[in-house]
C-alpha cells in the first residue's frame, strides 16, 4: 500500500462512527462523580484544586469505560492511585530540566511497556503521563503537591464509591461477551445452511473465555448464568460443522440435506434465544417450529451414519440451550464447591498476585524487535521532545503538545495515525463548540464548572462511537475547565489547536523514524499458527487412537493454543495490510493463500473433533502414527517457513498411505478428514514454496499492481484492486 492510500485509509478510520450500543447510565454515573468532586472543591477551596479534582475524577471515570473484566471500581481506584502517584513524583522532580526530563522519559517508557499487559493497562498508564505533565504546574510546595495528589486520588475513590452504591448492569460486560459467543455460533449455523464449508471466526468464543476468568472474590458472586453456557457453545460448534459438511455429514442434495438445513435453522434460533436470555437476564422464548424440528423420529429419520450421530448429538446439546433460554438465568450465584478455586473456574490473579505476571510479561517484550518495546521508546522520546519544543514556543499550556502525542500513540502504525487525525478533528470541533458557548453565555466559574461536567458526560457517552467524537467533548471540557480557573477562550483555544497539531505531528514522525512494521513478522506468525494447528490436529487424532480423559484434556489445551496463534496471525496480517511498506517475507497474495490453507486445515481437525469417541470407546490405532507424523512435519515446516525454505510433508504422506481404509468406530470418518488435512497442507506448501527469484518477481509485480491501481483511482477510469 502506498503512503497516499495508507493516509486515506487512516483518515477514513479516524473519522468513522462505530456502530455500538451507547451506555448513557454509565456515562451519567461517571459524570456525577466528576460533579461531586469538582463542585465542593470549587466552592470551598479554589479553582486550582477543582482542576486537580476534575482531572482525577474524569480520568478515573474514563478508565472504567475501557474493556476490562475486573470490577469497574477496582479499575477506577487503580487509575486514581496511578494519577496521584505520577502527580506527586513529577512535582518532586519539577523545577529543573536536569531532573524532570529523565523522570518523564522513564515514566513514559514504563507507560509504553504497560502495553505488554494489555491495551487497558497501556491506555491508563498513558493518562498518568498526561497527569504528570499537567499537574506539576499547579502546586507550590511539597505539602501542596501532596494535597493535589490526594484530591486526584479522591476522584478515583469517588468514582469507585458511586460504582459500589449505584451498580449499572453489574456483570454486564461478562454477559455481553458470553451472549456474543452464543450468537456467533448461531450465525455460523445460519451460514452453514447455505455454505456447508463456511468459515468460523473463533474470536467471540476467545473473548467469552477471557471474560470467564475470575478472581476468588468474583467467583463467589458471579451469576450462575455465566458459568456453563460457554462450554455448551464450544461443543455445539464442531457438531453443526460436521452435520453440514457433505463429506462427513448430510448428503449434498436430497431429503438429508433438507433435514440438515432444518436442524441448523433450529440450532440458530435456540442459540439466539439463549444469547438473549443471558444478555438480558430474562427468559427468552424459542419458536415452536424450532422445538418441533428438534424431535428426532427414530423410525422416519432420513439422516444416516455419521450425519445421524451428529444430529442426535446436536439435539441433545440444544436441549440444554433451550433450558438456558427458558430459565432466564436471572437469579442465583455460581455454586463454589469446596477446594481450590482454580479447580472449578478459570482463575484471574488478584492485584497483588498480578505483580509477577506483569514482570514476566514486560521481560518478554524487552527486546529490540518487539512492537511494545519500540512503542515505549517512541513514547519516551516524543514525551520529552514535545515538552522541550513546546516550552520554547511563545504559548501557554505547552504540556498539551506532549499530552496529545502520548494519548494518540499506539504500538502499531494504523491506530497511531488514525487517532492523530481523530484527535485533531475532534479538538477543532470541540473548541469551536466551546468557544461559541462561552461567547453566547459568558459563564462565571460555577457555570463553567457545570458546563465542564456536562461535556464530560457527553464524552463518556460517545467514548465507544469513535475517538474523534468523544474527543470533541473532551476538548470542550478542557476549555470550560480552564474557563472555570479564569482563563478566557482567546487565551486557550488557539493554543489548544496549535499544540494538538504539534503533538499529532510528533507522534506520526516518531513512527516513521522508529517503526515497528508488522509485514516482516508475517512468516513467524504463520509458522506459529502452523505448529499450533499441527499440535491440535495431532491431539484430536490421539483421542481416536486412545480415547481417554487425558487425551481429551490435551485436545482442549491444543485447541486454545491454536486459537491464540491464529488470533496473533490475524492481528499481524490485518495491520500489515494497512502499512505503507513493501511486503517482506510473504507477499499479500502468498499470505492470503497460506491463511486460507491453514483455515482449511483447522476446519478438518474441527470436523474430526466432532466425532471424537467418548472415553473407553473402541480404539483407532492407525490414528496414532498419523498424529506423530503430522506433529513432526508441521513442526519442521514451521521452522522452514521462518527460514523461507520450502516445507515437506514426507512423514504425513507415508503415514496416510500406511493407514489404508480403516474400519471400526470412527475410522472412515477420521481417515477422510486426515486426507483433507493433507490436502490443506499441500495447499499451504504451494502458497509459500517459491524460489527467491520468483518471490522477488512476485513482489515487483505486486508493486506494479499497486501503482497501476493508484493511477486508475487518480484518473477515475476504473476500480481500484487492493493488493494489501
From TrEMBL:
<keyword id="KW-0472">Membrane</keyword>
<feature type="transmembrane region" description="Helical">
    <location>
        <begin position="26"/>
        <end position="45"/>
    </location>
</feature>
<feature type="transmembrane region" description="Helical">
    <location>
        <begin position="74"/>
        <end position="94"/>
    </location>
</feature>
<keyword id="KW-0812">Transmembrane</keyword>
<keyword id="KW-1133">Transmembrane helix</keyword>
<feature type="compositionally biased region" description="Basic and acidic residues">
    <location>
        <begin position="692"/>
        <end position="706"/>
    </location>
</feature>
<dbReference type="Pfam" id="PF13515">
    <property type="entry name" value="FUSC_2"/>
</dbReference>
<feature type="transmembrane region" description="Helical">
    <location>
        <begin position="420"/>
        <end position="438"/>
    </location>
</feature>
<dbReference type="InterPro" id="IPR049453">
    <property type="entry name" value="Memb_transporter_dom"/>
</dbReference>
<protein>
    <recommendedName>
        <fullName>Integral membrane bound transporter domain-containing protein</fullName>
    </recommendedName>
</protein>
<feature type="transmembrane region" description="Helical">
    <location>
        <begin position="468"/>
        <end position="485"/>
    </location>
</feature>
<feature type="transmembrane region" description="Helical">
    <location>
        <begin position="148"/>
        <end position="168"/>
    </location>
</feature>
<comment type="similarity">
    <text>Belongs to the YccS/YhfK family.</text>
</comment>
<dbReference type="GO" id="GO:0005886">
    <property type="term" value="C:plasma membrane"/>
</dbReference>
<feature type="region of interest" description="Disordered">
    <location>
        <begin position="692"/>
        <end position="724"/>
    </location>
</feature>
<feature type="transmembrane region" description="Helical">
    <location>
        <begin position="100"/>
        <end position="117"/>
    </location>
</feature>
<keyword id="KW-1003">Cell membrane</keyword>
<feature type="transmembrane region" description="Helical">
    <location>
        <begin position="497"/>
        <end position="517"/>
    </location>
</feature>
<feature type="domain" description="Integral membrane bound transporter">
    <location>
        <begin position="386"/>
        <end position="509"/>
    </location>
</feature>
Amino acid at each position: 500500500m502506498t503512503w497516499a492510500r495508507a493516509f486515506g485509509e487512516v483518515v477514513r478510520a479516524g473519522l468513522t462512527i462505530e456502530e455500538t450500543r451507547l451506555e448513557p447510565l454509565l456515562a451519567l454515573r461517571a459524570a456525577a462523580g466528576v460533579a461531586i468532586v469538582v463542585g465542593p472543591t470549587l466552592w470551598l477551596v479554589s479553582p486550582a484544586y477543582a482542576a486537580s479534582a476534575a482531572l482525577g475524577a474524569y480520568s478515573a471515570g474514563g478508565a472504567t469505560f475501557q474493556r476490562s473484566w475486573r470490577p469497574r471500581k477496582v479499575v477506577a481506584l487503580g487509575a486514581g492511585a496511578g494519577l496521584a502517584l505520577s502527580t506527586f513524583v513529577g512535582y518532586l522532580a519539577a523545577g529543573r530540566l536536569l531532573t524532570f526530563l529523565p523522570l518523564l522519559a522513564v515514566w513514559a517508557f514504563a507507560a509504553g511497556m504497560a502495553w505488554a499487559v494489555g491495551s487497558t493497562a497501556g491506555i491508563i498508564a498513558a493518562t498518568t503521563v498526561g497527569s504528570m505533565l499537567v499537574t506539576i504546574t499547579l502546586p507550590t510546595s511539597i505539602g501542596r503537591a501532596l494535597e493535589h495528589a490526594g484530591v486526584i486520588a479522591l476522584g478515583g475513590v469517588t468514582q469507585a464509591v458511586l460504582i459500589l452504591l449505584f451498580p449499572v448492569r453489574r456483570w454486564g460486560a461478562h454477559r455481553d461477551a458470553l451472549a456474543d459467543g452464543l450468537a456467533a455460533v448461531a450465525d455460523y449455523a445460519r451460514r452453514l445452511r447455505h455454505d456447508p464449508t463456511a468459515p468460523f471466526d473463533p474470536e467471540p468464543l476467545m473473548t467469552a473465555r477471557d471474560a470467564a476468568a475470575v478472581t476468588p472474590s468474583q467467583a463467589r458472586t458471579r451469576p450462575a448464568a455465566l458459568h456453563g453456557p460457554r462450554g455448551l457453545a464450544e461443543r455445539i460448534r464442531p457438531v453443526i460443522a460436521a452435520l453440514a459438511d457433505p463429506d462427513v455429514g448430510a448428503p449434498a442434495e436430497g431429503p438429508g440435506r433438507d433435514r440438515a438445513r432444518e436442524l441448523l435453522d433450529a440450532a440458530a434460533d435456540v442459540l439466539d434465544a439463549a444469547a438473549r436470555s443471558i444478555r438480558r437476564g430474562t427468559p427468552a422464548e424459542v419458536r415452536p417450529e424450532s422445538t418441533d424440528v428438534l424431535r428426532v423420529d427414530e423410525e422416519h429419520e432420513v439422516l444416516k451414519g455419521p450425519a445421524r450421530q451428529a444430529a442426535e448429538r446436536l439435539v441433545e446439546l440444544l436441549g440444554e440451550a433451550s433450558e438456558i433460554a427458558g430459565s432466564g438465568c436471572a437469579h442465583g450465584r455460581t455454586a463454589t464447591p469446596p477446594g481450590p478455586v482454580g479447580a472449578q473456574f478459570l482463575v484471574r490473579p488478584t492485584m497483588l498476585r498480578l505483580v509477577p505476571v506483569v514482570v514476566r510479561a514486560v521481560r518478554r517484550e524487552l527486546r529490540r524487535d518487539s512492537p511494545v518495546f519500540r512503542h515505549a521508546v517512541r513514547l519516551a522520546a516524543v514525551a520529552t521532545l514535545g515538552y522541550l519544543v513546546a516550552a520554547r514556543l511563545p504559548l501557554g499550556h505547552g504540556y498539551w503538545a506532549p499530552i496529545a502525542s502520548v494519548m494518540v500513540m499506539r504500538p502499531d502504525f494504523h491506530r497511531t495515525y488514525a487517532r492523530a487525525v481523530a484527535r485533531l478533528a475532534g479538538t477543532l470541533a470541540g473548541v469551536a463548540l466551546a468557544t461559541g458557548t462561552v461567547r453566547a453565555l459568558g459563564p462565571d466559574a460555577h457555570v463553567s464548572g457545570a458546563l465542564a461536567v456536562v461535556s464530560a458526560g457527553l464524552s463518556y457517552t460517545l467514548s465507544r462511537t469513535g475517538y474523534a467524537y468523544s474527543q470533541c467533548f473532551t476538548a470542550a471540557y478542557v476549555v470550560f475547565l480552564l474557563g472555570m480557573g479564569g482563563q478566557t477562550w482567546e487565551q486557550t483555544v488557539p493554543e489548544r489547536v496549535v499544540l494538538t497539531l504539534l503533538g499529532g505531528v510528533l507522534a506520526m514522525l516518531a513512527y516513521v523514524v522508529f517503526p515497528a512494521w508488522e509485514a516482516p513478522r508475517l512468516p513467524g506468525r504463520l509458522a506459529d499458527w502452523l505448529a499450533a494447528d499441527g499440535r491440535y490436529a495431532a491431539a484430536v487424532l490421539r483421542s481416536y487412537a486412545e480415547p481417554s480423559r487425558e487425551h481429551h484434556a490435551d485436545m482442549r489445551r491444543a485447541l486454545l493454543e491454536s486459537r491464540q496463534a491464529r488470533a496473533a496471525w490475524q492481528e499481524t496480517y490485518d495491520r500489515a495490510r494497512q502499512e505503507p511498506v513493501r511486503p517482506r517475507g510473504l507477499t499479500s497474495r502468498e499470505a492470503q493463500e497460506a491463511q486460507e490453507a491453514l483455515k482449511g486445515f483447522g476446519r478438518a481437525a474441527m470436523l474430526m473433533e466432532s466425532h471424537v469417541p467418548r472415553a473407553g470407546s473402541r480404539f483407532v490405532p492407525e490414528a496414532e502414527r498419523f498424529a506423530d507424523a503430522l506433529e513432526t512435519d508441521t513442526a519442521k515446516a514451521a521452522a522452514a517457513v521462518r527460514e523461507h525454505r520450502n516445507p515437506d510433508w514426507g512423514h504425513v504422506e507415508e503415514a496416510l498411505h500406511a493407514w489404508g481404509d480403516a474400519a471400526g468406530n470412527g475410522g472412515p470418518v477420521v481417515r477422510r478428514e486426515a486426507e483433507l488435512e493433507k490436502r490443506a497442507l499441500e495447499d499451504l506448501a504451494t502458497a509459500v514454496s517459491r524460489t527467491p527469484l520468483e518471490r522477488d518477481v512476485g513482489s515487483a509485480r505486486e508493486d506494479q499492481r499497486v501503482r497501476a491501481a493508484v493511477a486508475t483511482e487518480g484518473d477515475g477510469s476504473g476500480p481500484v484492486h487492493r493488493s494489501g
